[in-house]
Amino acid sequence: MSAYLLYPGCSWDSSARAYALSTGAVCRELGLELRQLEDWNCCGATEYLSVDTVPAYALISRNLALAARQQNGAKTLTAPCSLCYLNLSKADYYLEENPSLNEKVNRALEAGGMHYQPGTLEIRHLLDILLNDVGLDTIRRHVTRPLNGLRVAPYLGCLLSRPDYRQRFSHPDQPHELDLLLKALGADVVDYPLKTQCCGGHMTQIGPNTAYELLRRLLHGAEQYKAHLIATVCPMCQLNLDAYQHDVNRHFGTRFATPVLYFTQLMGLAFGLEPKALGIGLELVGAREALAHIGVETPPPAQAPQRGRRRKKKSEGLPMPSMPEDDQS
Amino acid sequence: MAHSPTPGDGLSLLEAVERKTPIPSRLEMCIQCGSCGGSCPSAADMEHTPRAIFALLRAGMDESVLHSNTPWICVSCYQCMVRCPQEIPITDIMYAIKNIAIQRGAAHKEEAAFSATFAEMVESYGRSFELGLATRYYLKHHPLRLPGMAPLGMGMLARRRMDLKPTRIKDVDGLRDILQAAREMEAAQ
Amino acid sequence: MNAATSDSPRIGVYVCHCGSNIAHMVDVEEVRAWAEETLKGEGVVVARDYKFMCSSLGQELIQKDIRELGLNRIVVAACSPHLHEKTFRAACEKAGLNGYLCELVSIREHASWVHTDKAAATEKSKMIVAGGVKRVRYDEPLDPLRVPIHKRTLVVGGGIAGIQTALEIANAGYPVYLVEREASIGGHMAQFDKTFPTLDCAACILTPKMVDAGEHPNITLLTWSEVTRVEGSLGNFQVTIRKKARHVVEDLCTGCGICTEKCPKKVLDTVFEAGLGYRKAIYTPFPQSVPKYPVIDVENCTYFVKGKCKACQIFCPTGAIDFEQEDEETTVEVGNIILATGFQTFDPRRIPQYGYGRLANVFTSLEFERMSNAAGPTGGEIVLRDGKTKPQSVAIVHCVGSRDRRYNNYCSVICCMQSLKFAHLVKERTGAEVYNFYIDMRTAYKGYDEFYQRVLSEGVNLVRGKVAEITDAARLPGEEGKLIVQVEDTLAGRQRRIPVDMVILSVGLEPRKDAYETAKLFGISCSANGWYTEKHPKLDPVATMTEGIFIAGACQGPKDIPTSVAQGAAAAARVLGHIQAGEMSMEPIRASVDEARCSGCRICNGLCPFNAISFHDDRRVTEINPALCQGCGTCVAACPAGAISGTGFSDAQVMAQIEGLLWDVRV
Predict the structure, then answer these.
(1) Is the same domain home to B120 and B73?
(2) Does the beta-carbon distance from C385 to A173 stay under 8 Å?
(3) Which residues contact C22 (CB under 8 A, 6 or more apart)?
(4) Residue A156: which domain range?
(5) C-beta separation of B159 from A42 below 8 A
(6) SS3 category, C568
(7) Closest by Cβ to C353, choosing from A173, A308, A317
(8) Residue B112: CB partners within 8 Å, gap ≥ 6?
(9) Per the confidence metrics, is the pTM higher than 0.95?
(10) Which of residues 534-553 of C touch B (CB under 8 A)?
(11) Subunits with at least 3 CB pairs below 8 A relative to chain B?
């Protein structure tokens, strides 16, 4: 398996420690080498772009320049955080599209003795690499403790599949990549219609009421579809849904208690790894109860809730149109 | 921190926005269908929907746009952008409006201050630092909200999910040189 | 190369102002003077300019000079040859000069309309004129080819446009083959319940025409059939048609329907019933099908799948079932062809946020047409997917897949009116609260806006906004168990979430999936998105660039029933014109092979779009059939030996014209 450059992002060793631990464990298991970029800087999140344009792109591009310098044969720069992933790919794409911006950013980089030629790197999210480079077959082979009976809401948040400059995901609204991966782990994947709705991003800091409503919708949705837990691919989503769940409950008088885990943690569990090594327990809304559902030899047939959604073909009434995935199963 | 002066002061806001947007804004192509306002997760809290902002921009009602809370309520989820039937880069336009509002001194103070605090932090350390950001921002702007955040902070600290000290990158001087050069470039256009 | 001058050239140059179309951007007088002076050595005897060369006074000017100055070559610098080449050729003929000794060069489309710098456009116009003058020296007198027109006509597609066309021609007394891919003619219109804006019952106005077409002595109906090969050209096409095996002997079948009744196999009908209902494995698409003969769907028939059953054969009172029947191919000769192959609807599964296929109570417009049709799966009851519950609130979404750069970047024309019709029908039959979501209300044409007014008066809620998403994820108490339509009400300037029981997606119109292959088969062109291209968008809307092939109805672009019918009739009139004339003249522009120079490399063989090239294995040379050649020049350009030349486009002519165009760069 080839080596990848890893742009970890500012939360990697702090708020997203569980993500870092589980990614490390899973990659070791799969023989995937992630080499951390040296002396990387913050991607600026959504804040820097709000303040200024050229400096924001220069800030992001310094990382691209570093990566191009340190790539040593690795073409792919991977980011586990959706926001970092977006910013890195956004800069790469816009520098390519806009020669004048490219020129300015590169002149700025020169001041730090650096240069970046847009298109040099492939910028990809960790999920994309696990799904498309490692592949579902390999992942399935590593599963020793299938997540049967665990109802998981696949939650991608906004920035992975949107705007998706290089068209790496199946659809901006309803991408199926995370579903496929979780199914390969044996999980009972909930058809979660809110999978790419926003977690509020930085609004938990500056406009909590706006953010709490967005979080309420996601938690309410997960509860509506009887999910035991929410799987995320982004530290920002995890932080908002997990750490602010208590505040959301206080704000609305609700009693949500849905744990939010990284997809890599679920992979590790399915691979039979030790929960502690995967950072299980670092979540603020405990996952213990939810995880009690796995490890059961033959789980009882999942009681699909009545949702008035997709009907089985044989039912009475008018027939439903067929969907492309009908043919796959 | 120092902001770049407004590029080409004296431009209409529409022209300024078009220049700031990194790819063609296509604002002239907007058919006012409301796909953006319909898709926006935070539209309920906005004074104007994105569609209305574009109508105001094209009507030359610059002050209404600059003082609208809309771009500051934007959560940057790109939902509008991928659904726009005219492929207008709406999220990038929201950033452009925020840039210009800050430069023209018309920005929504609170939200702009958060962004500015964040940017300062990044320039000091090269990394963002959640605890420092939160305390500095809240102390400055919402000292009363800070105690309410304590339980969350404690929970995070207890799980070692929040650093007590910021991390500084090695070549922070190089980074500052780059940002300084970039600001000059922005001002020069 | 002295082809030019059996007589020494005496050339007249005529520069047109085209009102201000040319004159505003080209100094016409300067071009005239330049030509008269500078091109004297090329044989130019006189150069004139005139306000409208194409007017009779302009033409008389040319004719007078031909007679009085003894001109033997004419160059007119005006508009595109597409528009007036014929005019000026005819004018020359009248003055006794062969029309092919006249060149029309375009200084409008190629200069005045496409430039903004008058001096440069004027210079360019001079070069264009020089090209024409140099070229015309090598022109030779030609006679148009006369082709007799076969009296039979082929109509492809048995929807309303095709039926109309076939009837018009048949009623005029000429024979027509009407080919239809499905088991019955009728097309999309047969699926509809009511038609806007008058709400006539679609079947009531369509079926009489279907019956007429089915029984007309001049119409040969070929249903369950497809065209597989087209050869020949205007006046004499040879068309091969594959009649798919019906497994029902038409001569024996009485259309009694017992076979269908006895067939044990129920099949989801994704064609006529749009996936909302079922049919049998032996079936006619609908009760009024024309012809009345059923077909066996071999993919689903129990006998064909498992080898036993034969219920239809056992019960057929006339022994008309034939499991051994095979596809047949027949070749027919026709003089003209009309394509009326129609459209398909946009698949809304491409927009997952609208929930079609995931959310049970989201329907397409075609599904709704079947549902509201009294002969449809619900007997005309408007109900939810459970087959029984009447909706209390219905959302109708306009522009699904239309006017969107991500899907189809054009207006599908019929959706606004169709959606208003749905609103009226839902209101009338269920009393439900109805919401129509539109971007712009497009109700042009007679009686349409009046219908909009009527729907408004019925209390339908019109919300101006493109629907963002349709979801069952309830956020608020009132939304539980409903479909929520999320939209910006752009007139109120607010986002709204409107809970409803049922959603109808007014899906756009698209070219058929195989439109491009069909166009290639018939040798016509289509636009980037696949609609067939008409000869002129305004003045020749039913003809194509290929002589003898016409188009009618929605295969040319989205259109409603009245326009489709009008086009069907228009195409018929054009064909009848050809037939009445008995023979047509065709451009004598043809390619021919100089056998002595042909190396037999066969590079040209596969390139001819008109199948006019054949290869003689014995002599190792290629030959071009002048009856099939359309003079496109593809083979001429491709031939590495320069063995193919095109009449009217000889190397000498083309090189001379290029030389003229490069006049100002000569050293």
Answers:
(1) no
(2) no
(3) C16, C28, C78, C107, C108, C111, C112
(4) 136-291
(5) no
(6) helix
(7) A173
(8) A50, A51, B72, B98, B101, B102
(9) no
(10) none
(11) A, C
